[in-house]
Design a protein that fits this description.
- The chain is of the alpha/beta class.
- It has a seven-stranded mixed beta sheet, sandwiched between helices.
- Helix 1 packs parallel to helix 5.
- The longest helix has 21 residues.
Length: 206
């Protein structure tokens, strides 16, 4: 997976079983995973998990990277996206929301949003309007108001968008992402001149 790298957005109150699973699972597959956040001018921030207050250090700023440098961008479950969508100026997108917006402009980048992660897209509802998604049961009304089509499955794939029901389904969510990333890598190796993105051609649910 030499040409594959994923970005995982991070903030406080993360769901530890999910985040630590991603950390191990992508490494097992040989896929580097960068954890990104808004650093607020600091060199690094230590976040605390929601369940066990486990610490997690993040030193990469989402404001200084291009989502196009990644094969996939993941918005995790829990309160992470609610904290990331904070903006001092309500007439401007939060940096994390703008990062997600730019990721949606690149169909070759897989967007993975799980559970309450859809909160981060609430200010840019047009990116999921008309798309098939699943989310936490508490957000079904939200995604429908955003114009998305709710599908009652644990994981849903709609082109370059992969959504998961809850943090407890992170293993199925990650499995789907890895399968798509592997297919992309194989396509790049067998047909380097191809500019078509395999993921963008996919649809439906796994």
């Amino acid at each position: 997976m030499a040409n594959t790298r994923v970005a995982i957005l991070m903030e406080s109150d993360f769901y530890e079983p999910e985040i630590f699973y991603y950390q191990r699972r992508f490494a097992e597959q040989g896929i580097p995973a960068d954890f990104l956040t808004r650093l607020w001018g600091q060199r690094s921030i230590t976040f605390k998990g929601h369940e066990y207050r486990a610490p997690f250090d993040v030193s990469l700023s989402l404001e200084h990277v291009d989502p196009a440098d990644y094969s996939a961008v993941i918005v995790p479950s829990g309160m992470v996206s609610d904290r990331l969508r904070y903006t001092e100026d309500v007439d401007r997108l939060a940096p994390a929301t703008d990062f997600l917006r730019r990721a949606f402009e690149r169909p070759e980048v897989i967007k993975g949003i799980i559970c309450h992660g859809m909160w981060l897209a609430s200010s840019i509802p047009y990116v999921v309007r008309g798309r098939k998604v699943v989310c936490h049961n508490n957000l079904v009304g939200d995604v429908r108001n955003m114009g998305a089509e709710y599908v009652d499955r644990d994981v849903v794939v709609d082109g370059d968008l992969v959504t998961g029901r809850s943090g407890q389904h992170c293993h199925l969510f990650a499995k789907t992402l890895i399968e798509l990333l592997t297919e992309k890598e194989l396509l790049a190796r067998t047909d380097p001149s191809s500019q078509k993105d395999l993921v963008a051609q996919k649809g439906g649910t796994p």
